[in-house]
Design a protein that fits this description.
Blueprint: H1 10-43, E1 47-48, E2 56-57, H2 61-71, H3 76-80, E3 85-93, E4 99-106, H4 112-121, E5 126-127, E6 129-131, E7 134-153, E8 159-165, E9 176-182, E10 185-191, E11 202-205, E12 211-213, E13 219-223, E14 230-233, E15 240-242
Length: about 240
């Protein structure tokens, strides 16, 4: 039996066309949002140690050293108990130049560590570091030495002391990076010189601001084009380059 095709009224045809157009717009917007979210997830929160333009203190490094020497007091407890040595204070210069995550990663106790941290926490803003012309978060370390003046005492019978601000001194140990590329991303593990997972290493995709940091087990993942090299860095270590495919 021959079937007769049903006619679709103009208003139904118009409604169907409008629905299709709406679905296309919604899909396109969702894809754009997805892409934007991916881009933000790749750059937001990343911390670097090696960037094209390092953070800078207002007036330069000499002004920064002067600020620290003027503000840091040699703790009375340390002077009375004969404690001296170096305190390494690590901090992050944020994209707006403020300092966060200030902590002593090497200390001598007797209130010296907390005093150095206190002064860094109250430091004026830096000019932020940048990668490819865009501000990025940068991790830095400043060594601060507390040194006693033997034979010189104060009225309270405590030994006099001075505070010396040193430049960052890298050990430049070598670490190992095992990395593989699959499904649009690099994944791998960063190991220190003793073969242990190295947490907090910075992984940067060459020529971009995209990056990541290794977790507590030294593992990392970062999305990138397979042709892009990876640069893995950590304070005190020689930067390692992982060649793209």
């Amino acid at each position: 039996m021959k079937q007769t095709a049903k006619k679709i009224s103009p208003w139904k045809l118009g409604a169907l066309s409008a629905l299709c157009a709406s679905l296309i717009i919604v899909f396109a917007c969702s894809e754009e949002t997805k892409d934007d979210s991916l881009a933000k997830s790749q750059t937001q929160g990343d911390i670097f140690t090696a960037v094209e333009m390092q953070p800078d203190f207002e007036g330069g490094i000499d002004a920064f050293n002067s600020y620290l020497m003027n503000e840091i007091n040699y703790p009375l407890l340390a002077r009375r108990t004969g404690i001296e040595g170096r305190v390494d204070v690590q901090f992050v210069v944020e994209k707006d130049g403020s300092l966060t995550e200030v902590k002593a990663i090497k200390g001598i106790g007797a209130d010296c560590d907390s005093e150095a941290v206190r002064v860094l926490q109250n430091a004026p803003r830096f000019k932020p570091g940048s990668q490819n012309g865009k501000p990025v978060r940068v991790r830095m370390v400043v060594p601060i030495t507390f040194k006693l003046n033997e034979g010189k005492t104060n009225p309270d019978n405590s030994t006099q002391g001075i505070v010396i601000i040193e430049e960052v001194q890298g050990r430049y140990e070598k670490f190992k990076v095992d990395a593989d590329y699959a499904d649009g991303e690099w994944s791998g593990t960063v190991y220190d010189e003793e073969g242990n997972g190295l947490p907090g290493a910075n992984i940067v995709v060459g020529g971009t601001t995209t990056g990541s940091t290794s977790d507590l087990d030294g593992k990392f993942k970062v999305r990138a084009n397979e042709s892009k090299d990876l640069y893995v860095s950590f304070v005190g270590y020689e930067t390692v380059r992982v060649k793209g495919q």
